[in-house]
Design a protein that fits this description.
Elements (H helix, E strand, L loop, with lengths): L1 E4 L2 H12 L8 E4 L5 H15 L4 E4 L9 H23 L8 E6 L12 H23 L4 E8 L13 H4 L6 H11 L4 H13 L7 E5 L3 E4 L12
Parallel strand pairs: 1-2, 3-4, 4-5, 5-6
Antiparallel strand pairs: 6-7
Helix pairs in contact: 2-3, 3-4
């Protein structure tokens, strides 16, 4: 497992926890700002150098910042697209790869409006649209790579703390209590159930272009779409 994060302390801590259970060389931490194109490219290169191959990519970096909304788009959407293309570059069969799995983390906010978080909502809609589209392409072009999306509800991670900060919420800061009421109504999940959904997607090789929803009330289930995506006849 390769861990990428801008926060060196958190990354080293996660690696240390894994080292207690597994041999040290089985994990690597790479400090990386996903919005920096060269850093992200370099991180993928280091992973290949360390492990010799790439099988699974999880694009999970995300922020909630309605004030600096340009950076929210860069982190939540642009870096997910770039991470997907880098993963495909190394894994797709037509490029000398052995195939693999790419999982992009969206949100329930990618499937419905999110009052007081419109830019966050837009980026998460974008992740779903991009991933579903590239999954159809991957199937048509026989990349040997499956691409799926996970859309969790509220999860107990540090991103929830951003709701209390004016520097994150900007003009929507005064609505923080409304968002907290939503959290109480829908419930806040432990990250372990998201990991469970992730493993399900990795292990089930029939899943491609799927949108997995994970909520406190319904657990792991899938979004149903009535419209069949376009497929080429060639």
């Amino acid at each position: 497992v390769a861990l990428l994060d801008r926060n060196s302390e958190a990354g080293q801590g996660s690696k240390a926890a894994l080292d207690e259970q597994f041999e040290a060389q089985r994990t690597v931490f790479i400090q990386c700002d996903v919005t920096d194109q060269e850093q992200l490219k370099g991180a993928f290169k280091k992973v290949i150098e360390h492990f010799g191959r790439l099988d699974i990519v999880v694009n999970n970096a995300g922020v909630n910042n309605e004030k600096d909304w340009e950076s929210t788009i860069q982190i939540n959407l642009t870096s997910v697209i770039r991470g997907t293309y880098l993963g495909l570059e190394y894994m797709r069969k037509g490029n000398g790869g052995d195939g693999g799995v790419i999982i992009n983390i969206s949100s329930l906010a990618g499937l419905m409006p999110a009052a007081f978080q419109p830019v966050y909502c837009a980026t998460k809609h974008g992740v779903i649209g991009f991933t579903r589209s590239i999954a159809v392409t991957a199937n048509m072009e026989n990349y040997g790579v499956r691409l799926n999306t996970i859309c969790p509800g509220f999860v107990n991670t540090p991103i929830l703390q951003s709701i209390d900060k004016e520097e994150n919420m900007g003009q929507y800061y005064s609505y923080k209590d409304e968002i907290k009421n939503m959290m109480r109504f829908y419930g806040v999940m432990d990250p372990s159930i998201i990991a469970e959904g992730l493993i399900t997607i990795i292990e089930d090789d029939t899943l491609n272009g799927e949108v997995m929803k994970i909520t406190a009330s319904q657990g792991i289930h899938f979004q149903q779409y009535s419209q069949t995506p376009f497929t080429s006849k060639r």
